[in-house]
Amino acid sequence: MLKGRFQLSAWLQPLLAVAIGLLGGAIAISLIGGSVTETYAEMWKGAFGSFYFFTNTLTRATPLILVGLGVSIAFRAGFFNMGSEGQMILGALSSALVALYLPGPPLFKLLAAILSGIIAGGIWSAFAGWLDAKFRMNLIITTLLLNYIAALFAGYMVAYPFKDKTGSAALAQTMMIDKSIWLPKLFQGMSIHGGFIIAIGLAILLFLFIKYTVAGYEMRMLGYNPLFAAYGGVNRRKVMLTSMFASGGFAGLAGAVEVLGMQYRYTDGMISNPGYAWSGIMATLLSGAHPLGTAIASILLAALQTGGMGVERNTNIPLEISSVIQSLLILFVTAKFSYTLWKRRKGGKSDAASS
Questions:
Q1: CATH number of the domain enclosing 317
Q2: Residue 350 within any structural domain of the chain
Q3: Average pLDDT of 36-61?
Q4: Within a domain: 6
Q5: Which residue blocks in the chain are alpha helix, DSSP H?
Q6: Where found (predicted)?
Q7: What is d(CA 230, CA 242) in angstroms, rounded to the nearest whole number?
């Protein structure tokens, strides 16, 4: 009975958040003199109105799913990895450089580029975990600050030593990756590529891992009750470093997939400007760090973004209306987390008083 109520709550809370976001968006549309029904109809058409737009939405959702899955691993283990952007940047840069300069046949270079993205993102994330384990440095602060280091380092690398100087463009970017190393497109003439299949497959595998394996159980135990986990013999340091590496590895994979499936080179700002990492984190929070829910929430957020572009094309409503809706989703999630923390603290005080 309790389990059924918990599962019902896990599905109702994201739906409630979406309803609040759409209601707030409707108010904003009304205030600027637009038609709510027309705007939302255009938003739906821009995201799902045709097979072309639908595949664009799934393409946009691909890096969000991978980032969200990585963040969900850390959250499930009780750690806040806010450094997905930096991890994704280093994963993208590493995969681009390996694809460009590693000798070998195309398939080998493709697999090596993907693996290098995972390793780069994983090491950058695990470094923050090591700082916590070794020096007790706050994980939220270190992961946030490491984003800036990664972004500035990658920007320097493509502005100077690895800059493409063959074209007339003044952009800070690497050379174009050979077409034989690109991730294959799933449909001819569409943007969706093999990275989406990888993302969905990993979402299913991660769900099974967390639910049915001993390592997944230890990770969940540490996240739900650290004291009980320590009493049960769970090594916090080991689980933290492992989960942080895996979390960053997923973000690095997201960067690699974006380079190999969409951009075909690393360009300074290609990860930061679209806000992939923060949208992925939001998807994780909306789903309660559930792997399958994260995939669904990522597609929803991607639909808001691609649908917002359709609204701007076909109405007088600006693109920022989708940002208004996402901001309200963030506000709902923040309020939910604040309420949960308040209940835990109140429960802890009550237990102390009764003892």
A1: 1.10.3470
A2: no
A3: 94
A4: no
A5: 2-31, 36-48, 51-76, 84-101, 106-135, 139-159, 194-212, 214-224, 226-231, 236-258, 276-287, 291-314, 321-354
A6: Cell membrane
A7: 16
User: How far apart (Å, rounded) are the C-alpha atoms in residues 79 and 71?
Assistant: 9
Domain enclosing residue 267, as ranges? 39-337
- Residue 50 CB neighbours (<10 A): 10
Instruction: List, as one string, the DSSP characters of 54-119.
Output: HHHHHHHHHHHHHHHHHHHHHHHTT-----HHHHHHHHHHHHHHHHHH--S-HHHHHHHHHHHHHH
* Confidence check: pLDDT of 157 > 60: yes
Task: In whole angstroms, give the CA distance from residue 324 to residue 36.
Answer: 14
> pLDDT of 56-93, one tens digit each?
999 999 999 999 999 999 999 999 999 999 999 999 99
Residue 343 lies in a domain: no
The pTM of this model reads 0.92
Contact 209, 216 (CB under 8 A): yes
The DSSP code for 32 is T
Answer for the pair 139, 79: CB distance below 8 angstroms, yes or no.
yes
pLDDT band at 22 (very low <50, low <70, confident <90, very high): confident
Number of compact structural domains in the chain: 1
And the tokens for 243?
A: 């989960």
Confidence band, pLDDT 50/70/90 cuts, at residue 346? low
Structure-block tokens of residue 274: 């679209």
CA distance 242 to 212: 18
Supply the DSSP symbol for 176. P
Give the model's confidence band at 6: pLDDT under 50 very low, under 70 low, under 90 confident, else very high: very low
Question: What residue type is 152 in one-letter code?
Answer: L
